[in-house]
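Local shape tokens

___
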Amino acid sequence: RDRLQARLAETPLGTAEVLNPEDASPLARFLALRSPDAAPFAGKLADREVMVDVRDDVLRIGLALYHDAADVDEFIARAASI
């Protein structure tokens, strides 16, 4: 999660407000981003076979125990191309 948040600036998602930063407690298993472009971002990510959750102006990127650094790097690569 820290790696994901640290690398968001490499993508258009870096313009979004992080609602639950890495220093928040307790930590959620997702990163929530507020942006007026949340729905378009979600659509463009879906076009790249990336599933995220979008609720109004909040995009949520879920993380699980089976995600590793390579998965985060792949997400960043796909998100950078939206």
